[in-house]
Write a structure and sequence with these properties.
The complex is a heterodimer of chains A (about 425) and B (about 260). Chain A has about 425 residues and is α/β, with parallel strands linked by helices. In chain A, about 20% of the residues lie in helices and about 35% in strands. Chain B has a domain of about 180 residues: P-loop containing nucleotide triphosphate hydrolases (Rossmann fold, 3-Layer(aba) Sandwich), CATH 3.40.50. The chains are: A alpha/beta (about 425), B alpha/beta (about 260).
């Protein structure tokens, strides 16, 4: 019963998608009839999808109009950049709108059974996956964006790890936001007892760039999946990133998300704990400056018993930046003996920065253990004075306080990943200047 | 230029205000290299305000002159005072969660030197200071003052003082809340710090620590002023007779002597 006055994306402002347009996109990625049929079904949903409801928490902080591309026309294929090399990686992939993904896989990973291919060529794999795991109902929050991506994706990738295979190096996927509309679609299928790390890095782009991405991650029974979602967009990029994971019996999913770039971004992360004993942990870091706006949503759904989830999300906002967070933990009736934790801490570095935090719990079974906590606080001036009295200038003092703020969260990360994120934070902190007086 | 001779620190007609309210009402002090001074006063007399204002705490407005080694520093921000050789040992050291003692010390020592200290050299220096003050080794990886006991915090303050090698060390009630062993460690640290190039001003409520650090000069601070100064014997007299008699002698109500301070 959304009342019309809250509809901020009038249908006219949605980028148009005609039947011909859908066919052109399909032809450009080179998909077969089965995928084309899915694309057309998504286009039908896109045409009828309701506007995001600005009254609900999920869309309270972001106007979806900012995140939509202006046009969904099949992008002109760019000159092919050089293929990535696969050093220190099971595979490296470069994705650009309208271009066949450039894929380089390591021999060791291929020998272990890793499959990395354009999504358009993964019809059989997708059918097998769907036969194993029936598709979910439409995501109520992002219906519009899910439908949009399904109908108009213009670069797609499938990553499959066969049962029992253990990849000791990550699959690194770089998605460049160059151009007006990048709609990447990623499907990751980690088989029973298999182990994999998938790094999804969104980068590049400029003020004209919009990104609407969708990633679907499956961790079968006993599988171990680490999904790293890093956003380092160029200035002015706006976009909507979705990752939906499903963890089977005793599966273990770690999602690390780190948002640094762009102007406006909304990130929605869901993990369904579908099998008994499944575990999911989400660890996130956001650092905003200038007039950046970040909007993150996490959702843990406990569908089976003895499942465990944890969220540790830290946001640092400088200048006039704003970080908004909404997090939902839902424990279904059947999820006896489950545990769910959620913590969101926000550090404000300036008077003009802002942070919002709205945790929500929906608990339908009483035999569970749940907790959540949220704080929004400025830097303690006594900390800065103390550090200053030891010779650190105010910028240095602030950097140290911020690093301290993030330390415990970083401490949960595997070593190589921690180093990478610390470098990104370091680069952002180096830009903190002008307080020395 | 240096009108104070070998004074490492001096202030003249120092006034400290919180808003419009004067807390310190005209203080003159001079500390020379190698000297240990004690500034004693009852709780609430404004001692901590004086100490924090000398370091440049942004909550206070200051009038008058502050000099470090002859150079005016009253217009400088706290980190510039620290880099020039001033050190404040805090009464209540602030916790900085997530920042390890080792990382903090390295940043502080580098800032004081004006150049990054090589890791190996820093480690040796840190280990030596730890051994000297009998600080447990696991301190290095603990977060700065986070979950530290009162005694541990004060030891860490003294350790910082030794590593930063100040020319003027101002210690704000570093003796409070310490058991006798910790008190001795702190006093030894102060005695070590007060070398040929360094002067120390210990701000304290009690005479107890003065038994171990043997001050050269004792100043009695009441109602925002130094109301009496003398040698070490003055501290003993205060210990024996309390503060009220001085208050009466200088014409302050005993209650008024303490009433004007902001922090105890």
């Amino acid at each position: 019963m959304a009342s019309t006055e809250h509809r901020e994306v009038p249908a006219a402002r949605r980028p148009a998608l005609t039947g011909d347009g859908v066919a052109a996109l399909s032809a450009q990625v080179g998909e077969g009839p089965a995928l084309f049929a899915r694309r057309r079904a998504a286009a039908a949903r896109y045409a009828t999808a309701a506007d995001p409801d600005r009254v609900s928490h999920l869309w309270r902080f972001t106007d979806p109009a900012h995140l939509l591309p202006e046009t969904l026309a099949a992008p002109r294929a760019a000159a092919a950049p050089p293929s990535p090399h696969a050093e220190h990686a099971a595979a490296r992939v470069l994705m650009l709108a309208g271009m066949r993904p450039l894929i380089t896989a390591g021999l060791k990973a291929l020998a272990a059974g890793l499959v990395v291919k354009p999504l358009a060529e993964a019809e059989e794999e997708l059918e097998a996956l769907e036969a194993r795991e029936p598709a979910e109902g439409a995501d109520p929050g992002s219906g519009l964006f899910q439908a949009l991506n399904g109908a108009a994706w213009n670069t797609g990738l499938y990553v499959g790890v066969p049962p029992g295979a253990i990849l000791d190096e990550p699959v690194h996927v770089l998605i460049d936001a160059a151009g007006g509309g990048t709609l990447p679609r990623l499907v990751v299928d980690v088989g029973r007892g298999a182990q994999a790390v998938v790094v999804e890095e969104h980068t590049g782009g400029d003020a004209g760039s919009r990104v609407v991405s969708s990633s679907e991650l499956h961790a079968a029974d006993g599988a171990r999946l680490r999904h790293v979602l890093v956003q380092t967009w160029g200035e002015g990029v706006c976009g909507h990133l979705t990752a939906r994971a499903r963890a089977g019996r005793d599966a273990d999913v770690l999602t690390v998300f780190a948002s640094f770039g762009g102007e406006r971004s909304k990130v929605e992360l869901t993990c369904d704990l579908a099998g008994e004993g499944a575990r999911s942990e989400m660890i996130g870091v956001v650092m905003g400056a200038g007039r950046q706006r970040f909007d993150h949503h996490t959702r843990h759904r406990h569908l089976a018993g003895r499942t465990w989830s944890n969220i540790d999300f830290k946001a640092v906002a400088d200048a006039a930046a704003r970080s908004s967070y909404t997090g939902l933990i839902r424990i279904e009736q059947d999820a006896r003996g489950s545990e769910a934790y959620q913590e969101n801490r926000n550090l404000l570095l300036s008077d003009r920065s802002r942070a919002d935090s709205i945790p929500e719990l929906e608990i339908l079974n009483q035999d569970v253990s749940c907790s959540h906590g949220a704080t929004v606080a400025p830097v303690d001036p006594e900390q800065v004075f103390y550090l200053q009295s030891r010779g650190l200038d105010p910028d240095e003092a602030l950097r140290l306080v911020v690093r301290g703020f993030l330390e415990k969260t970083f401490g949960r990360l595997p070593g190589d990943l921690r180093e990478r994120l610390e470098d990104l934070v370091g680069a952002r902190l180096a830009a903190l200047q002008g307080r020395a007086s | 230029m240096n009108s104070n001779g070998d004074a490492v620190f001096s202030c003249r007609d120092l006034r400290v205000f919180v808003g419009d309210k004067a807390i310190v009402k005209g203080v003159d002090l001079e500390v020379r290299a190698g000297e240990k001074h004690a500034l004693m006063g009852p709780n609430g007399s404004g001692k901590s305000t004086l100490a924090n204002a000398l370091m440049g705490h942004p909550s206070y407005r200051v009038e008058g002159e502050i000099r470090l080694g002859g150079e005016r520093i009253d217009h400088l921000p706290p980190h510039e005072r620290a880099r020039r050789g001033m050190f404040l040992g805090f009464q209540y050291p602030v916790a900085v969660p997530g920042v390890s003692v080792a990382n903090f010390l390295r940043a502080a020592v580098s800032a004081r030197r004006g150049a990054d200290v090589p890791v190996r050299e820093f480690r040796q220096q840190m280990q030596a200071a730890f051994a000297e003050l009998q600080v447990p080794k696991d301190f290095v990886s603990r977060y700065l003052n986070d979950g530290f006991s009162g005694g541990e915090k004060k030891r860490l303050e003294i350790l910082q003082m030794l590593m930063l090698a100040p020319t003027f060390a101002l210690l704000d009630e570093t003796d409070s809340g310490l058991d006798i062993d910790a008190l001795k460690v702190v006093a030894e640290g102060v005695n070590k710090a007060a070398g040929p190039a360094t002067g120390v001003l210990m701000v304290t409520h009690y005479q107890r620590i003065l038994n171990y650090m043997k001050p050269d000069r004792v100043h009695v601070f009441m109602g925002g002023r130094i109301v009496r100064a003398g040698g070490p014997e003055l501290a003993h007299e205060l210990e024996a007779r309390g503060y009220d008699w001085i208050a009466r002698e200088v014409g302050l109500e005993p209650a008024a002597a303490a009433a004007e301070g902001s922090r105890t």
